[in-house]
Amino acid sequence: PTITYVLPDGTEQQMDVPCGQSVMDGSVRNNLPGIVAECGGSCSCATCHVFLEHAPEGAFDDAMTEETDLVEFLDDAAPNSRLSCQLIVSEACEGARVRVSTSNG
Ligand code: FES
């Protein structure tokens, strides 16, 4: 499915991310800037912060406690904040759009 990434410089990149990979994987594996993912996807670093600007119906599961606890402490946290390593891509994600935080380090 195609995911649109709005990068820290405001430009957009569309990436075809295989099902089963995370939105973080889709960024890191394509060398997109802005998602640092220090912990490699184990939901402990919060340097993969994105704003979920558009999610098709049923695209992503709600955040679990581990994720919301981390997001809470981010300076630029917003109601649509998510950790992209926890956003697992499926067919339902076609057309999803995330804006990468400019504060991921
Ligand atoms: Fe570390 Fe997502 S990659 S929390």
TrEMBL record:
Gene3D superfamilies: 3.10.20.30
Keywords: 2Fe-2S, Iron, Iron-sulfur, Metal-binding
Residues covered by the 2Fe-2S ferredoxin-type domain: 1-104
Cofactor(s) this protein requires: [2Fe-2S] cluster
CDD domains linked to this entry: fer2
Family that this chain belongs to: Belongs to the adrenodoxin/putidaredoxin family.
Name of this protein: 2Fe-2S ferredoxin
Organism, as annotated: Citricoccus zhacaiensis
Lineage of the organism: Bacteria, Bacillati, Actinomycetota, Actinomycetes, Micrococcales
Gene field: fdxB
